[in-house]
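I'm stuck. Protein, please.
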Amino acid sequence: MRLLILIGSVLVFASSSAFAQSEKEKGAQRSNAFEPYTAKEEKAQVKQLKKSKKKSFNARFNRKLDRKMKEFEKRMQANAKEDRKMARAMLKPQYSDPSYFGHKRKPKKRPVGKRKFCKECGIVH
């Protein structure tokens, strides 16, 4: 009885391995328009793509550094432009002429009896 079970299991195992081998051969021989490449060729192509995309840390770091330097230069140019604009504004009389007292327009000089206290500069004029 044991002998029959042992022989039966060996036959089942042998037939399943033979069936698996025949399926592998059929898959390797099969070629159609939907699957023009075999699995090995696809894996090789994927590996080549991965290798070509792989970059070293230094290359990535240098690329980021270059981008940061360009951003820094843009900011510095924008700041310089803003400084020039402010310098031009400071040449206007409301900033350079002391008679303006910080007013946007020159304050009126009223007669002594009609003078008012100014909230902007704290002077009566």
